[in-house]
Amino acid sequence: MAISTRGPGNLAPQAPRRSLINDPNVRAIFFQILVLGGVVLLGWYLVSNVLENLARQNIATGFSFLDREASFAIGEAMIPYSPASSYSQALLVGFLNTIKVAVLGIILATVLGTIIGIARLSSNFLVAKLASIYVEVIRNVPVLLQLFFWYAVISESLPQPRQALNPIPGVFLSNRGMKFPSLADDPIWTWVGLALVAAMVGVWLLARWARKRQEATGQQFPVVFASIGLLLALPLLTWVVGGAPTALDVPVLQGFNFRGGITISPEFAALLMGLVIYTAGFIAEIVRSGIRAVNWGQTEAASALGLHRGEVLRLVVLPQALRIIVPPTTSQYLNLTKNSSLAVAIGYPDLVSVANTTLNQTGQAIEAVSIMMAVYLTISLGISLFMNWYNTRIALVER
């Protein structure tokens, strides 16, 4: 039988019992609960205080005002709207106008910024310096001042509608905007649009199939030419089957303005130009730095394989630079979208402008501001999610 050699003085030391207050994990949870409780109490106090003040001043709360008649006109609308429409319809018009500016602005700013960023790296001294001057000037002038500048240029440099410039038959330029012919109403155009959407889906499926085919067999498929053919052929075939209508709605001067056709207003043009030119200056620097970050050995290796400069940039450098370019470019997309709220300064009826009018007429300040905040938050989160997905898709896969 084993005999213990430990005497009363040789007992194994025991770890000291630690109280809950000394446990770092418990303390961390306690302080988080304490902070959360403080935030909840502060929020409850602010909300109750606001509701009490509104009730004291007999100001109604809630969103029931959205069903009431708006009773104000909106200069530009992508959907049917009149002063007899509801406030919710008016806010929807403002939301769509904001989306239109944001989408077009992001596309054009990306193209322009990429071109200028590449131009800054040009071996041509004049091209590189002009691109540098553009970046330095545009980035250091506040975007609001640029919007005022472009609005003044467009509205002051163009004549009245009766003296409108007519550079191309059916196209008129005046201080009321640019008017050009549009397609006359016909049910076939809806089907042509659906055919175009179907062609886009087909292009996406074709690109996936071609990529998998190349990975399996090493053979390339002419995706670009096939995609162009599909995008042109399917809508064109739908148009021919539908009777091939060619009627146009040509703008005509009636009184002091033009009627018919499509209008690009001075406010929209100034806002789009200002946002695109301003944001492109920042994107240009992101593109330049992204290209610079690609190891020079990649360019040398591609040149040694016989690729010319354009192919080296398109096939070797830019795909690698995208991994660096995408994250900061996402911030610029978000900035462009949020900067579109400055449209109220030049009279373009975006969401902020329409919501301000709604606020002034109804007095529902909290609700109107909450709607604006929720919309911009949703748009920003949507852009971030898409760009994060794209960034993950092009990221290098570790093995």
TrEMBL record:
Pfam families: BPD_transp_1 (PF00528). CDD domains: TM_PBP2. It is found in: Cell inner membrane; Cell membrane. Gene3D superfamilies: MetI-like. Keywords: Amino-acid transport, Cell membrane, Membrane, Transmembrane, Transmembrane helix, Transport. It is a multi-pass membrane protein. The chain crosses the membrane at residues 28-47, 101-121, 133-153, 188-209, 221-248, 268-287, 368-390. InterPro entries: AA_ABC_transptr_permease_3TM (IPR010065), ArtM/GltK/GlnP/TcyL/YhdX-like (IPR043429), MetI-like (IPR000515), MetI-like_sf (IPR035906). It comes from the Bacteria. Residues 95-387 form the ABC transmembrane type-1 domain. PANTHER family: AMINO-ACID ABC TRANSPORTER PERMEASE PROTEIN YHDX-RELATED, MEMBRANE COMPONENT OF AMINO ACID ABC TRANSPORTER. Belongs to the binding-protein-dependent transport system permease family. HisMQ subfamily. This is Amino acid ABC transporter permease. It comes from Skermanella cutis.
